[in-house]
Amino acid sequence: MFKNKNKILFYSISLIFIAINILFIVNDIYYIAFLPVILLFVFASFISLDKILLAVVFFTPISVQLDDLVPGIPVNLYLPTEPLLIGILFLFIFKILLDGKFDKRILLHPVSIAIYINIFWLFITSLTSTMPLVSFKFLLTRLWFVVGMYFLATQLFKQIKNIERFIWLYIISLLLVIIYANYRLSGHGFDNQHASNWVVWPFFNDHTSYGAILVMFIFPLFYFLRRKTNILFLKTTTSIVFVIFIFAIILSYTRAAWLSLFAGIALWILVKLKIKIKVVLISGIAIILLLFSFQNRILDKLEGNESESSGKFTEHIESMANISSDASNTERINRWKCAIRMFKEKPFWGWGPGTYKFQYAPFQFSYDRTIISTNFGTLGNAHSEYLGSLSESGIIGMLSFMLVVFMSFKTGYNIYHQTEYQEIKDFALFIMLGLSTYFIHGVLNNFLDTDKASVPVWGFIAILVALDVYHKKIIPNKEK
After folding, report:
1. Residue 312 within a domain
2. Is residue 190, in this structure, part of any structural domain at all?
3. What percent of the chain has pLDDT over 70?
4. 86 with 154, same domain?
5. pLDDT band at 29, cuts 50/70/90?
6. Residue 125 above 90 pLDDT?
7. 33 lies in which domain range?
8. Count of alpha carbons within 13 Å of 133, Cβ hemisphere only?
9. Among 86, 200, 389, 447, which is most buried by a count of CB atoms within 10 Å?
């Protein structure tokens, strides 16, 4: 009798839901269809939150924007990753309020403290923002990425095998995008640089973010490739995937990605030479000051370069330095100049997190505009993580973001030089190199407002912190 009542209840609820769903669909309202997914997520989160986090990682490369599915919608999200991360954020807050327990070694880690400072300043500048709604939306987006892919991920990474799962799940999903993009590119010729820009849609907005993420994972892949193993299938598969990624990077025609790859290799050499991070940073600052001192001579020289970006590899490389006629380069400089002018007008508070694309138009001078210039923030934002932060959150905003970057690399350096275990040493090094490619690329582009970049960037930082806290002094054991 009890079972019969449960069956009646089940079928009654199902029929009611179907009826309500039909009613909403008839009226062109489709959101009610997400209810079963939300309920399933809530149930799964209480049973196995680690699986939800790993699911987010897998879905990230193949996620699509809600605006692409429902044009004109006022709130845009990446599906299904951001709704899952929003749910994870609320569950995290609920858990903290309920038991107040979280590993203090993570909460008080130098990287975590740097993140607190950056988020606190984002909150302050959201209050002073010229567009508070936009800024608080930006802040919330940053929060659900940091909570899910940094704080909770550090707990997931207590087990080394979960770190490898994180990396491989993203790589496997990204392979699907690589196959999709290059299949489309083949129809236009593999030397068609212009086609490479849009064949990655709808999974990536353009080839620049796609190239940046490909390069970010090439170093972890190389770590898996060079690691000793007796499993021939694993070694062969890793080799094939590595070669596919190399060709995908070339065919992405992303000059900034190529540059960041070479910079990552240079950093690898510096680490192997046991040069301290302070020396690297001081040298970097000295080079920047030297370039600034001779900027007029350098600009005169660069303006003589008229090589255009194209499908020919050598011409595409040469076009990196073309600041006179290459539209991509000249528009990037236009956006940088706008960011600096915005900073000069509001140097302390900035214009508000996430507001650059809405506010930069009046700061474009007629002689800086290019054939691809717009007033609507299309084709990217400030084209720099650092200048974007400077214009939106002022000098403290940029410095606090740079502090997160610095502490992340310092953690990686410390693990490499302090641990006695070669596997942990190498793992930390190649994760740090992968992370370095993004932050070097970040000089020329900014993608941290997307799930494609935020998930791996915060995830890689979480890996370094987890290696530092949980694995640096313990012999690696994947079965733990």
Report:
1. no
2. yes
3. 80
4. yes
5. low
6. yes
7. 9-39
8. 3
9. 389
Question: Would you say residue 310 lies in a domain?
Answer: no
- Count of CB atoms situated within 10 Å of the CB of 243: 12
C-alpha closest to that of 361 among 386, 342, 383: 342
Instruction: Judge whether 353 lies within some domain.
Output: no
H or E element at residue 165 = helix 160-186
Total number of domains in the chain: 2
What one-letter code names the amino acid at 299? Answer: L
Alpha helices in 60-159 (DSSP H): 66-69, 81-99, 104-107, 110-127, 132-146, 152-156
- What is d(CA 356, CA 419) in angstroms, rounded to the nearest whole number? 42
30 and 177, same domain (yes or no) = no
**3-class state of residue 79 by DSSP:** strand
**Tokens 């598969």 belong to which residue?**
237
**Residues 6 or more apart whose Cβ sits within 8 Å of residue 45:** 52, 87, 88, 91
**CA–CA separation, 66 vs 30, rounded Å?**
12
**pLDDT in the model for residue 249:** 95
Under 8 Å between Cβ of 231 and 224 = no
d(CA 93, CA 74): 26
Residues 75 and 212 both lie in one domain: yes
What tokens were used for 15?
Answer: 């029929």
For residues 64 and 14, state if they share a domain: no
Same domain, 33 and 109: no
Mean pLDDT (the chain, rounded): 84
| Cα radius of gyration rounded to whole Å, the chain | 24
Q: How confident is the model at residue 350 (pLDDT cuts 50, 70, 90)?
A: very high
